Here is the input.
Amino acid sequence: MTLQNKVALVTGSTSGIGLGVARALAAQGADVMLNGFGDANEIEALRKKMAEEFSVTVLYDGADLMKPERVAAIVKRTQEELGSLDILVNNAGIQYVAAIEEFPDAQWDAVLALNLSAVFHGMKAAIPGMKSRRWGRIINIASAHGLVASANKVAYVAAKHGVIGATKVAAIELANDGVTVNAICPGWVLTPLVEGQLVARAKEAGTDVSTEAAKLLQEKQPMLKFTTPEAIGAMAVFLCSNDAQTITGSAISIDGGWVAQ
Here is the structure.
């Protein structure tokens, strides 16, 4: 229980990567503020189960992080109701796919608002408290697309590149304040959303899920294996540990060799 007496806010944590990270932190003793969208009853059941399973306090806030004032408000609520904010994991994100000349302006604005601006506003709100306690961990969930590009993903790629840049700036500014700032850059992750896409692809192609999974992975990754949310959670736990106290400003790839090519 290496994170006892620590408090974590994990955005976009009602499913997928964010949920994997939130569970990993809770398993190490951290109290957690969950955030995200979904069915209210399902989220409440998830919150209650996590609190009972790990014997920690788990709260939920459905703040729309596209609104800067709501980002500041969820940070403030975490600090007030859980006592502090020691670990900030900026994970919430959305995707939209289209060629640049066909990319809707509204979708560009939305992707940047959640995937990039919310990261900035979260760090801005959380940093003063971390500096005052001289301990903090900020983990920004970027992407392989924060390091390399793919066609038809201009907003997502631009946002994730921006996240890595912002991570580096924050790491430099906080280098001697006891606060580390790093980015995790996943490749293909087997989330419920991806699982649903594989089922749909298999149905459309008349194949099976394993065949479509291999095809999907081959598009980008030398290693034909999905990363799991649990593996990303384990990396987040390590970055919060004392052993990682000099790791800062890094973009850590968990991508089956995607960006090594």
The mean pLDDT is 97. The two ends are 38 Å apart (CA to CA).
